[in-house]
Amino acid sequence: MTTASAAPTAASPAQAEARPPAATSRPWRNPWRHAWFLEGFTWLYLLWSLAPIAIAVLFSFNKGKSQASYQGLSLRWYTTDKLQSVLHNPTLHHAVIQTLWLSFLTTLIAVPLGVAFALGINRWRSRTSSTFNYVMILSFVVPELIFGVAMFFVFTTLFSSIVQLGTWAEVLGLVTWNVSWPAIIVQARLVTIGKQYEEASADLGCTQLQTMRRVLLPLLTPAIFASVILVFSSVIDDFVIVDLLSSTSLTQPMSVIIYSTQHGGNGGPALNALATIMLVMSFVVAGAGYLGYRWMTRGERIDGKQAIATIAGV
Amino acid sequence: MQTPPQDTGTSPRKGRTGRKGAQAQPSKAFWVALAAPGIIWLTLLFIVPFYAVLAIAEGQLNRLFESPIAVYNPLHWSSANLFNVWHDLFGASSFAGPIALRTLVYVAAASILSLLIAYPTAYFVSRFAGRRKGLFLVLLIAPFWISYMMRMLAWIDLLQTTGYVNKILVDLHVVGQPVNWLGGHSYTVILGLVYGYIPYLILVLYAGLDRIDPSLIEAGRDLGLGRVRTFLRVTLPLSRQPILTGMLITVLPMVGDYFTNQLLSGAPQTSMIGNLIQGQLGTPGLEGQGAVLSLLLLVVLLIPMIYYVLATNRAAKEAA
Predict the structure, then answer these.
(1) B62 has which bridge partners?
(2) How close B130 gets to chain A, by Cα (Å)?
């Protein structure tokens, strides 16, 4: 009994004395120390994630025919080779133009369609509108293959007399697949804007069309701009829909050409050059998107991290 | 996202209707007119196509051209295609059954591996990156801007028998002979799937972990929990939702993937359900079965999809 009660009193000063040295001699006991292991892990992941891309870009400047060993720097696969370079091979050359053309057409249709849809759905508020809002979100999550198969069948059977596989089928498929970007981003922005501005404008005697043009659209500009960037860049990188809906090699954009050529075993550094051109396009769009978005939201409390996340659709 | 703004949204509008009753009706027509093109578009190019797939799946075969005949009237539907696919999947000499099973194994392995890599990375960037968060975020998002084909091409370059991976492994005497990585191995395909889809998972996890209030973690520490126990009792339970949605956003496209294994293996012993469906498109006589298979896949994935939609709606509701 006496020993039991004496033990804690004897132990507690000892513990109090022991604690500070333990924290210094055993740094892993310090809860606020830097997470070196996690940081190393993260850098290893980033190396694994990005170094292969850097090497693939390097191979696009390869002097030799190999995609596996580096033999010196040249522009052979971009311009100088008279037969196989991206500039001179008609298939590769055409694929670059097809990608840009598809991105342009899809953005041109999908963004106005999605913005109008978002505005209408968000303010109309009825059973129909919320049902179609769910349909739109469903089109966002359905696996691309299943959606592509449905599109393939509808253009080979039901709509085959109006639109056949080829550029227009690709555009229609891509618009449906990407219309949810503007629809979701604009709706999110509408929630943060609220209704005060519209009501103020109505009280000051604006008609709905004037309110739309002078108040809502200017407030929505950053969201619309972000959706343009997202739609354009996701069409550049899209594969499944364009693969299923293209017909001849003339309607195949870069991603499909890379897939079918490499899969057929006829790859070569020219494919790396094509992929690098795709990469540069995407990065230019992303860079322009970031700068433009920062500029448009300069009066707001939006930092760089948020701008990056919005442009990437996160 | 739907219901609460509806409540807060209608009450001011009602107030305005009281003042200017004349404006209320044209106001609604205006929004309906704005929504109409999108609604018509989604009906014609999203709902109708899925009905067309159903009509082909339940339709008949033109014996002469081996082309599918879509039957749009449900009363005349035949279950011949469904029966064939069922037989392929579960019959005695089924060939689709093993493929479906393989898809399940690959996707499960790839998504668990992805989570094991993605969680520590997202955890580090959200909690410990400090002032370098922007840099890490740019590096994590970079794969989004690099096309999937470029990312696969990069690994094809590295994994060739004469490629750098083999060179390094032979130089380090890890392997005696160069390994034919691209010769139809399941591990190459699984690693390819991980590499392809992990950026999505990391970003969803990052967004979820970044939202955890640091004061909760500090409270755990102040109450005497160690680092590990704070993580297990505070951070991990709070990251259940992001883990679930992140896994869904990686699993859904992985199930429909047919290009990763075509590029990294190309061998029939690694083909997945996506290859089966894609191979049946444009193949005379088999298109109807392709339609059935893609619908079956859709039915299987419908529950996770609906869960995802509801979860994101709930998240948006909480944020608003």
Answers:
(1) B67
(2) 10
pLDDT for the residue numbered B44: 93
Sign of CA dihedral B276, B278, B281, B284: negative
Q: Could you give the angle at the alpha carbon of B158 between the alpha carbons of B277 and B170, nearest 5°? A: 125
Domains and CATH numbers, chain A: 80-311 (1.10.3720.10)
Say whether A245 sits in a helix, a strand or coil.
Answer: helix
pLDDT in tens, A125-152: 888 888 898 899 888 888 999 999 999 9
Contacts of residue B94, defined as CB under 8 A and 6 or more positions apart, other chains included, come to: B87, B88
Q: Shortest CB distance from B120 goes to which of A38, A240, A279?
A: A38
pLDDT under 50 in chain B at which residues? 1-25
Domain range annotation of chain B: 97-280
Strands (E), chain B: 60-62, 67-69
* Architecture of the domain whose range is B97-280: Orthogonal Bundle (1.10)
Global pTM reads 0.85
Q: Provide the ipTM.
A: 0.84
Inter-chain contact B42–A139, Cβ cutoff 8 Å? yes
Kind plus residue range of the DSSP H or E element containing A24: helix A2-25
Low-confidence ranges of chain A (pLDDT < 70): 1-33, 264-266
| Residue A29 pLDDT | 58
